[in-house]
Specification:
Shape: globular
Bound molecules: zinc ion
Structural class: alpha+beta
Helix content: 10-25%
Radius of gyration: 13 Å
Number of domains: 1
Mean pLDDT: 85
Number of strands: 6
Low-confidence stretches: none
Length: 95
């Protein structure tokens, strides 16, 4: 059971509490932001990459704007605390 003193918590509830998340493959293609960087899990810092390196993740839970990514382990650990809603990935071209 994860408590509020978990080492992975440092204020994410400000922007992730009650968020709607989509489980999907990691890609930067859909991101509007012009930066091209790797993303890390918002909680444990595990890296998301498209390339096939060891110890990187290729899918996870993302916010609808694709700016925040959460790995499956942290998703499962913090879901009760953050009360996330999981939705299906929007169809291409949907608003
Ligand atoms: Zn994580």
């Amino acid at each position: 059971m994860v408590g509020s003193q978990d080492w992975r918590l440092f204020g994410q509830e400000k922007y992730l509490f009650g968020a709607t998340l989509v489980h999907r493959d990691y890609t930067r293609d859909q991101v509007v932001d012009s930066r091209w960087e790797d993303d890390h899990c918002e909680f444990c810092g595990t890296e998301f990459m498209r390339d096939n390196f060891p110890d990187v993740l290729h899918d996870g839970y993302a916010t609808l704007n694709g700016l925040h990514w959460i790995c499956t382990d942290c998703f499962n650990d913090f879901k009760p605390m953050f009360r996330w809603t999981v939705t299906e990935e929007p169809a291409p071209g949907a608003p």
